[in-house]
Design a protein that fits this description.
The chain contains three helices and eleven strands; from the N terminus they run ββαββββββαβαββ. It is an alpha+beta fold. A five-stranded mixed β-sheet has the order 6-8-9-11-10, with helices on one face. A four-stranded antiparallel β-sheet has the order 1-2-4-5, with helices on one face.
Length: 161
């Protein structure tokens, strides 16, 4: 497996044991260009926060492969909320990988000053609504904000402060 470190990112490594006993490595890269304090100063000077955002990316090393199962929206200056854009472990579902990713993501975000994490549930995934609810609501203790239907996106939220 190859991995190239990027400058300007703080690395967070986690080792997790899956249900079948396999060890996996989860790496989060937190962009360090603008910390929360600097972002607040930029807003107070009326600088465009859309030019000053941070990224959090996730890489999972599992089954001798490098996967990127998580999309987190950019975190803009002064925000205390983060949004999971998507989480997709592909054919590796049901092994605990997604749960480890979300649990460790919440830990990283809390350290960044984030208080709430949300995730939108797409109408495209309505056919697997029960699995989504099990993942977010039961396994990861999110609250249901709005119900997923065939016509309307759902929303879940978790207070991590």
């Amino acid at each position: 497996m190859k991995y190239k470190e990027r400058d300007g990112f703080k690395k967070h490594f986690f080792s997790c044991e899956l249900q079948e006993g396999q060890q996996i490595i989860i790496l989060f890269e937190e962009e360090m260009e603008h910390d929360q304090e600097l972002q607040q100063k930029l807003i107070s000077k009326n600088l465009n926060p859309f030019k000053h955002c941070r990224k959090v990316e996730c890489i999972v090393f599992v089954d001798e492969k490098k996967e990127m199962p998580l999309l987190v929206d950019d975190i803009f200056a002064g925000e205390v909320k983060a949004k999971i854009g998507d989480i997709n472990c592909g054919d590796r579902t049901g092994r605990g990988i997604g749960t480890f990713v979300v649990q460790n993501l919440c830990s990283i975000l809390r350290g960044m000053g984030i208080e709430t994490v949300t995730a939108s549930l797409s109408t495209v995934d309505y056919h697997k609504k029960d699995k989504l609810y099990n993942f977010y609501l039961k396994k990861n203790k999110f609250d249901l904000v709005s119900e997923l239907t065939e016509e309307k996106w759902g929303l879940v939220s978790k207070n991590i402060s």
